[in-house]
Amino acid sequence: MLSRLGTLAPRLRTAAPVALTLATVLTAASGASAVTARGHAASASKPQAAAAAASHRLALPAPPTPAAEITSAGASAAASNVSAGVSRVPRAHRLVEATILVTSNKSLGAAKLRALRHISGVKRTLTVAVGNAVIDGHRARVLGVDPAMFRPWTPRLTAGSQPLWQSIARGELTASFDMGHQARLPLGQTVMVRSRYRVPIRIGAFASVGMAGIDAVVSRSRAMELGLRPQSGFVISAPHVDPLTVRHEVASLLGAHQHAWLLRQVVVVRDAGEFLTRVQINTVLQTAAHQVGKPYVWGDEGPNSFDCSGLVQYSFAAAGIRMPRVSQQQWFAGPHVNYADARPGDLLFWHYDPTDVGDIDHVAIYAGNNMMLVAPHTGAFVEYVPVPLTNMAGVVRVDPGMAGAIA
Q1: Rounded distance, CA 36 to CA 18, Å?
Q2: Which of 30, 174, 276, 327 gets the most CB atoms within 10 Å of its CB?
Q3: Same domain, 306 and 334
Q4: Pair (278, 400) in one structural domain
Q5: Per DSSP, what are the bridge partners of residue 56?
Q6: Which residues have CB under 8 Å from 19's CB, separation 6+?
Q7: 107/234 Cα distance (integer angstroms)
Q8: Domain boundary among 262, 288, 314
Q9: What is the CATH number of the domain that holds 307?
Q10: pLDDT, tens digit (0-9, with 9 covering 90-100), for 280-314
């Protein structure tokens, strides 16, 4: 069988969807499908072709400052109810390895919290507030914490930033690197944050807190002002046991309104062969290819616009595969393979966050021949482009069973 993803040229960067010619290519070695491109540059010389490929490479803007100290200009822009006279947040002398984040749409009762604390292997726990909010017009998942208690649970660079934690203690908001970067939040300025209630809050820092699916962190008092439910989140540290086993036990204790997020990398010991059928792989690739030309929008899941993980979830859903929503969780959706062994339909991941070099910040769908389908960044459109190897975190071969269990 032969297939082509036809006429992908620079005009695919326009916002209007492009009609694509799609069929099937069978690769003899793997039985997987591959996507090839035919454009006007097909007959160009090698230097011209290389220049054309370079112009389509994924280009992300430079990272923002991990934690910005208040300047006089920033202080004047802060909301009037932010206090500058807060006590100093103590430094974290010993970091805690976070394993599971439990989130709920209501407060967790005392009995359930007690049962979670007594799961075998659990060493430490921390109660937080968690809920949905809209930050400067962008949907987000927000955590409300006691800065002194939560600080040791975060990545080393984040935990070590005194300005960041003083900022949170003053009532300011720390956005994740991804959200601050892709939603173009105005660092140092005050924006409207809306959950159950609307509150103007200054954005004090961009930094990772190492919690998958969490886009921003505020103090517990700010969380109360926003209307986030107290004790609606629970962080578990179980550093010496299998995190999948802990997650299974956590899930068995939770009802339909709670979710357990993996926060620690999982080593999958199993054959990294094909988990998807040829039809499923073709469906994933064709679905993603049909989105080429649609705009990147932070937090969007389609069908008219996407962020990077939203494109992955949407494309795999078309093949009947339930995927986690965020790239940090998609990283756990199957065994890891070397890039040299990547096959069409595998997921590609990158690290870009300067505050947590181990954090997953970006994901794309491998299309074969060193090409990928990706929703790149704010201001760009879904593209079919060469794979950049700089800052690559790894490659995941999707196992529908694992993906569905994590989702």
Answers
A1: 16
A2: 174
A3: yes
A4: yes
A5: none
A6: none
A7: 10
A8: 262
A9: 3.90.1720.10
A10: 898 999 899 999 999 999 888 889 999 999 999 99
Question: Is 65 among the domain residues?
Answer: no
Residue 61 lies in a domain: no
Domain span at residue 288 reads 5-56+267-406
Same domain? 187 vs 291? no
Reported as a single tens digit per residue, the pLDDT across 374-406 is 999 888 999 999 998 888 989 999 988 888 877
What Å distances lie between residue 342 and 29, 336, 395, CA to CA? 12, 10, 7
> Both 228 and 243 in a single domain?
yes
Give yes or no: residues 381 and 253 share one domain.
no
Show Cβ contacts of residue 79 under 8 Å, excluding neighbours closer than 6 positions: 171, 190, 199, 200, 201, 202
**In degrees, to the nearest 5, what angle opens at C-alpha 31 toward C-alphas 30 and 36?**
90
Which is it for strands 198-206 and 173-175: parallel, antiparallel or unpaired? parallel
Give me the helix-helix angle, 278-289 and 308-317, nearest 10°. 130
Cα(108)–Cα(383) distance, integer angstroms = 43
Q: Given the structure tokens 């006089």, which residue do they identify?
A: 72
What is each CA distance from 195 to 130, 150, 233, in whole angstroms?
Answer: 11, 22, 16
Please give, one letter per residue, the 3-state secondary structure of 156-223: HHHHCCHHHHHHHHCCCEEECHHHHHHCCCCCCCEEEEECCCEEEEEEEEECCCCCCCCCEEEEHHHH
| Residue 152 and residue 279 in one domain | no
Tokens standing for residue 149:
């208690």
End-to-end CA distance of the chain: 34
Let me know the angle formed at the C-alpha of 326 by 366 and 37, rounded to the nearest 5 degrees: 20
Using only the alpha carbons of the chain, give its radius of gyration.
Answer: 22
Do 172 and 218 reside in the same domain of the chain?
yes
pLDDT digits (tens, 9 = 90+) for 170-187: 999 999 888 888 888 998
pLDDT digits (tens, 9 = 90+) for 53-63: 333 433 333 43
Is 120 part of a structural domain of the chain?
A: yes
Structure confidence by residue, pLDDT tens digits, 205-244? 888 888 878 899 999 999 999 999 999 999 999 988 888 7
Mark whether 295 and 255 lie in a shared domain.
no
Residue 139 sits at φ, ψ, to 5 deg, of -65, 140
The number of distinct structural domains making up the chain is: 2
Last residue of a domain, which of 207, 230, 262? 262
Of 212, 344, 330, which is closest to residue 285 (Cα–Cα)? 344
